[in-house]
C-alpha cells in the first residue's frame, strides 16, 4: 500500500524528513504496525519513535490511536503531544 507519511516538530527533526512516500509491507495494518516498521528502517526512525507513548498520530487527517487501522489510508502523520499556554 502506497502512503504519505508526515512528521511534525521534533519528529521531523529526528526522522530527518518532513514527509515521505512509502509502500507499507503487507503485514502493516495499524498505526502501531507502522511505527514498528519505521523503527526497523534506521537509527533516525528509532530515535524519532524512542518513546512511542509520546507520539500522536493522525490517519487521513483524523486523530488516531495506535490501534487505528491504516488500511486504505492515503496519509499518516506523526507528531508530539501539543501543549498550550
Task: For this entry, give a set of tags.
single chain, 85 residues, alpha+beta, Ubiquitin-like (UB roll), 3 helices, 25% helix
How are the secondary structure elements laid out?
Layout: E1 2-7, H1 10-15, E2 19-23, H2 31-39, H3 43-48, E3 56-59, E4 62-64, E5 75-79
Parallel strand pairs: 1-5
Antiparallel strand pairs: 1-2, 3-4, 3-5
Structure notes:
The protein is built from three helices and five strands, in the order βαβααβββ. It has 85 residues and is α+β, with helices and mostly antiparallel strands. It has one domain (2-79): Roll (Ubiquitin-like (UB roll)), CATH 3.10.20. Strands 2-1-5-3-4 form a five-stranded mixed β-sheet. It is globular and about 25 Å long.
Quick structural overview:
The protein is built from 3 helices and 5 strands; from the N terminus they run βαβααβββ. It is α+β, with helices and mostly antiparallel strands and 85 residues long. It is globular, with a radius of gyration of 12 Å.
Tally of individual helices? 3
CATH superfamily: Beta-grasp domain
Strand content: 25-35%
Strand line-up of the largest beta sheet: 2-1-5-3-4
The overall average pLDDT, rounded, is: 94
Amino acid at each position: 500500500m502506497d502512503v504519505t507519511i508526515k512528521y511534525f516538530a521534533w519528529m521531523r527533526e529526528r526522522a530527518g524528513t518532513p514527509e515521505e512516500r512509502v509502500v507499507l509491507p503487507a503485514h502493516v495494518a495499524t498505526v502501531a504496525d507502522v511505527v514498528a516498521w519505521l523503527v526497523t528502517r534506521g537509527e533516525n526512525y528509532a530515535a524519532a519513535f524512542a518513546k512511542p507513548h509520546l507520539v500522536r498520530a493522525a490517519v487521513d487527517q483524523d486523530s488516531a490511536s495506535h490501534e487505528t487501522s491504516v488500511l486504505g489510508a492515503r496519509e499518516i502523520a506523526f507528531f508530539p503531544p501539543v501543549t498550550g499556554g
